[in-house]
Amino acid sequence: MGEVHESSADGLEEFLAVGLDLESNGCQTATMLGEKIYVIGGGSDDDALSIGVRILDKSTGKWEIPMVLGTVPAPCKSHSAVFLNKERILVLKRDSAPDDCTWFLEVDTLFVKEQKEILGTEVVAWSKGVNGDGPKPVVISGPSGVGKGTLINKLMNEFPSTFGFSVSHTTRAPREKEKNGVHYHFTERSIMEKDIRDGKFLESAHVHGNLYGTSIEAVEVVTDSGKRCILDIDVQGARSVKASSLEVVSIFMCPPSFEELEKRLRARGTETEEQVQKRLRNARAELEQGKSSGLFDHIVVNDNLETCYANLKKILNLNGSNDDVCQPSKCIELPAGYSVSEMDQKVLIHCGTNEEGNASNSLYVFDASLLKGGAPGRTRGLNAYAIDPFTEGLNGLKQVKSF
Length: 403
Ligand SMILES: Nc1ncnc2c1ncn2[C@@H]1O[C@H](COP(=O)(O)OP(=O)(O)OP(=O)(O)O)[C@@H](O)[C@H]1O
Ligand SMILES: Nc1nc2c(ncn2[C@@H]2O[C@H](COP(=O)(O)O)[C@@H](O)[C@H]2O)c(=O)[nH]1
Known about the structure:
The protein is 26% helix and 32% strand. The protein contains ten helices and 25 strands. The protein has helices at 12-18, 110-119, 148-158, 189-197, 216-224, 235-243, 258-268, 273-292, 305-315, 389-396; strands spanning 5-7, 28-33, 36-43, 51-57, 62-64, 67-69, 79-84, 88-93, 102-106, 123-131, 138-141, 163-165, 169-170, 185-186, 201-207, 210-215, 228-232, 249-254, 298-301, 338-343, 346-351, 363-367, 372-373, 379-387, 399-402. The strands form four sheets. Strands 6, 7, 8, 9, 10, 20, 21, 22, 23, 24 and 25 form an eleven-stranded mixed β-sheet that branches. A five-stranded antiparallel β-sheet has the order 1-2-3-4-5, with no helix packed on it. A hairpin with a 2-residue loop joins strand 2 (28-33) and strand 3 (36-43). Helix 7 (258-268) crosses helix 8. The site of adenosine-5'-triphosphate has 14 residues, from helix 3, helix 7 and helix 9.
């Protein structure tokens, strides 16, 4: 791993000539991987309100503006950037709220590689860092009419600070009591298809003749509010999510019998006879796949509603009414001058000066081996701490302050 300096993009020509010696203006950073230099900072052409990204290819001398996926962080006075595991850049924003200071720009993760392949262009993806492991999102699947929505509503009503619903997009028409932005984002097919092509969706599927999908934003909005995200999606969607970097707990819900499923679907009275028939036909295939594919971590039967709800709560470790919001991350502020080295998969950041500009010997450790998740969605499992090199020596790596 090379040294990383805060830099001015204007100094890049000189940078290429003399290596890593860059002037610092605090607004932009240049971070190098192989032949590529990632310049992070300043507004992008599209949106002056967010941090921009440009890539300089040293071998050709050409700049490239990559397609940027994920929610882009808002600009800040300055930031620091450090490469982690040659696949993502850890970006620490200064003077930002604790829940907005740690970001990752993914440049060569599995997700980014896949998206480069699909989109046929240079791609980078932002993912906000969440301290600790955080609770895994919950995917609930099952045939139409089994009771997914009913049970999710019960969870959300009893634990309003714990859970947040991922509001999907759909091309189907709203039902009488459904509100746009609450139950679904009701949208036009052409708009949704374009957004899918533009990489804005975590997953999407054709279900019962309509297009449904979970946008990356829908999951991020819930995660950012400190809540555990619940996704009500079909089996195809659950399969796509499982293949993504989003680590979830997946639950498949079965009816006690096919006759009971039919009864519930008809009794709900929201579908025409033709639609009911279509949903029931699809239900047979879904039940087969859901029960036998090994796709789901848990299978529950929704016979008696209260019994099923109790089982669901057991799976989600909800004992009593501990309706807690997650603790927000804390922030590590790196000074202007620092150097970076790597040891045992840990990134060590040695700060030569403190925040007032005085000499300091602070040493921070970012444990990159514990990262989980990532774009699309949030990066969890960040373990950052300060150590005291004088009293413990580097081999000791004794933690003196956790973040
Ligand atoms: N355990 C149960 N016993 C009897 N009726 C139930 C039970 N659970 C749910 N229901 C009823 O079954 C109907 C379908 O439930 P719900 O709308 O929650 O299904 P769903 O799985 O979310 O369907 P969809 O996938 O179409 O959105 C509703 O009228 C609901 O009140
Ligand atoms: N793959 C996805 N499936 C979704 C999503 N949102 C809902 N669904 C599933 O669609 C059916 C029908 O729902 P309805 O509201 O029209 O009755 C049901 O099985 C849902 O689980 C999504 O974003 N992606």
